[in-house]
């Protein structure tokens, strides 16, 4: 799956006379106010030479807002070409704004290096403002101790747009195709760590994310409707942990707990035949102790 996607058609908007039209961008609305106040130069604002207009600082701020607004609609990323069309700027100018935002971690490149998406300093991106190196420094030794007995892998998972991303995976059998790799993305509704992450969000946010991503079932046991998933989240919040049995793969069980303070979850997976019902409560206790240590390390 490519990390970047092109824009679809603009959402419907109607002008003051009722005719369909394009919704004004923030920068266009600002232009109108500046013109009314007599602060916009006769030749407007020259994109290639911003210093020619007294309004250029405000215009620059507004352009940045346009870019951020556009990226919030596409958490998986967008290409430079798509962004320049969306915000009605030349590619060169769009690139300059993106470069400045990237330097300050408000924007980052997608994994394929082609597109851009919102970065770790903002706005509901995974792992909030926590530095990944600091997070993993605390998590790795904890996760290594959790992988024993019937546990095949330990997963540290964070929210990534409408999905979750595996921040780190410790596994006995990394070549097993049922074990995700670090950096892989997965659906919220088919994994224990995905459910534990979703349980930390408001129901309205979860419903919007699931509507955006779809709820394609991985097995016949997968949750397939938003109301069913929301009911399960209420149960997870009450119990303090999430459990999946044969929902991602037909022979795999997962258990996960939230990590306080960030949209993160720590989970264990194993074969359903060996990670049996009686082993779930001790697995939850071990996860909770590890998650508490991890949460303290993130403060």
Distance between the termini: 34 Å
| Biggest β-sheet: strands ordered side by side in the sheet | 8-7-6-11-10-9
CATH superfamily of the largest domain: GAF domain
Total helices: the number is 9
Radius of gyration: 23 Å
Largest sheet: 6 strands, antiparallel
> What series of H and E elements makes up the topology?
EEHHEHHEEHEEEHHHEEEH
DSSP, total strands: 11
CATH fold naming of the largest domain? Beta-Lactamase
Helix content: 25-40%
State the secondary-structure class.
Answer: alpha+beta
Rounded average pLDDT = 79
Form type: elongated
CATH architecture of the largest domain: 2-Layer Sandwich
Query: Mind telling me the CATH class of the largest domain?
Result: Alpha Beta
Biased composition (Basic and acidic residues): 14-36
Keywords: DNA-binding, Transcription, Transcription regulation
Region (Disordered): 1-57
Organism: Nakamurella flava
How is this fold's topology laid out?
Blueprint: E1 13-14, E2 20-21, H1 26-36, H2 56-72, E3 78-79, H3 80-86, H4 91-103, E4 107-109, E5 115-118, H5 132-146, E6 153-160, E7 163-171, E8 185-186, H6 192-198, H7 203-213, H8 226-239, E9 242-245, E10 252-259, E11 264-271, H9 280-297
Antiparallel strand pairs: 1-2, 3-5, 4-5, 6-7, 6-11, 7-8, 9-10, 10-11
Domain HTH iclR-type: 58-120
Keywords: DNA-binding, Transcription, Transcription regulation
Biased composition (Basic and acidic residues): 14-36
């Amino acid at each position: 799956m490519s990390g970047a996607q092109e824009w679809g058609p603009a959402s419907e908007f109607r002008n003051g006379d009722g005719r369909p039209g394009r919704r004004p961008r923030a920068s266009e609305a600002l232009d109108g106010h500046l013109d009314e106040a007599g602060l916009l130069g006769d030749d407007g604002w020259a994109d290639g030479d911003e210093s020619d207009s007294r309004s250029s600082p405000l215009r620059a701020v507004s352009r940045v807002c346009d870019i951020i607004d556009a990226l919030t609609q596409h958490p998986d990323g967008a290409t430079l070409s798509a962004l320049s069309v969306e915000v009605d700027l030349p590619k060169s100018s769009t690139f300059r704004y993106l470069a400045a935002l990237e330097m300050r971690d408000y924007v980052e490149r997608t994994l394929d290096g082609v597109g851009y998406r919102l970065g770790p300093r903002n706005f509901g991106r995974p792992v909030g403002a926590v530095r990944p190196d600091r997070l993993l420094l605390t998590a790795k030794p904890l996760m290594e101790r959790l992988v024993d007995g019937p546990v095949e892998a330990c997963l540290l998972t964070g929210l990534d747009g409408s999905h979750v991303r595996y921040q780190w995976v410790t596994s006995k059998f990394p070549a097993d195709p049922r074990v995700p790799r670090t950096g892989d993305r997965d659906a919220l509704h088919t994994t224990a760590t995905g459910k534990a992450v979703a349980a930390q969000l408001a129901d309205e946010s979860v419903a919007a994310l699931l509507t955006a991503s779809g709820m394609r079932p991985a097995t016949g046991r997968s949750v397939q409707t938003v109301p069913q998933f929301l009911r399960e989240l209420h149960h997870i919040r009450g119990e303090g942990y999430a459990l999946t049995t044969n929902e991602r793969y037909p022979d795999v069980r997962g258990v996960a707990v939230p990590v306080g303070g960030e949209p993160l979850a720590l989970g264990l997976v194993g074969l359903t035949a060996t990670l049996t019902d009686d082993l779930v409560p001790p697995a939850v206790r071990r996860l909770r102790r590890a998650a508490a240590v991890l949460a303290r390390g993130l403060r």
